[in-house]
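Sharing a chain and its predicted structure for anyone who wants a worked example. Both blocks are below, sequence first, tokens second.
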Amino acid sequence: MKNNLNERDSFSEQKPWLDYTEISDDSSEPVLGEEWREKAYSAKEQLVDAFVEDDPIFTLVAHGTVKNDNCGTFMRRKVKKLKGCLRVHLHNQIGVALNGVDYRNKIFVKRVFYSCNRPECPSCGVSAWAVREAGRAEGILKYASNKLKMKIEHFIISPPQDFSGSFEDLRRYVLKAMLRRGIVGGLFIYHHFRYHGKNETYVGERAHYFVGRHFHVLGFIKGGYGNCRNCIYQRNGTFAKCKEGCNGFEGVSRRAYDKDGVIAKVKGERKTVGGTIWYQLSHTSIRKDVKKQVVVNWFGVCGRNKLRIPKGALPQKENLCEICGEKLYDIVYKGNYKSLLAFMAGFKDGQGFLMNAKDKDGNWLWSAVHEDKYKGG
């Protein structure tokens, strides 16, 4: 089986010198940093205008239909609720903080981002569903990393492009290839398409997606990748030395390639695990023929039957009041709603802000959705 990843009729003639590791690289991956969620929430515009080759089974994430008008908006239009903290008595105790902010008779408010959490939704697929999935996966991988004492690595696994079996057969083939190379576990995300950007060298072709099957994997290598990453031969691009008998990942992978035709590329050290996962989910492939999508798949030492995570071991994302530190709850504004919307328009997505608790006559402008649970503010 051959592995011509960026497959075009004349590709091998254009670049006959190309090393197999180069064509599996993804140089467009952005550096998101620890603040990846903020960037992900604002990722409204994707490559939706890029042509996608017609495929009977797969399509790109966020290329379905919107089933709820509230999708991708802050606050449901009909319910009109927000997250906030009405514990004014605690805020009054703080009074004027050292930073000069007066918290007296103020409440803390955050808008509620509504999502249907469907990967096919154009509004929620990238800026909501993918963020949730990436955050959860990041927590599991970091827990596994601490337990196994192994470093999280990012791989691009490209099977032979003329593989003729079913998708399930392809998954099994790739899983065996990863285990053969010492990738002992982690998660994998399937990409059915590759993207040809405007600056790439397919003369006369516009930017578009084309079929180029590969998997993005975040997981662990038995023995680690440090020796290969620091190897003088790899830094100089002299990979031939790896095949001569080195038992590092690159040597094992190249010898395995001669048997299974699978290309395994290890990316650079991760600056943010969650950001890497979110970026791969932001242009992943989803199936047209199933209702419930399973996009993030776990295997090996991170499989469901292998990795046991105690309850409460994973970090829980909580909305907390930035004044008193207590948990936020659902609140409703009882004043002029249009003026509230105009005021909130000046804040970034997901940003919290302070507002008056009462009007000039001393009447409460806010109420809790569940008064019995939050009696007395």
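Comments welcome. The chain has a mean pLDDT of 79.
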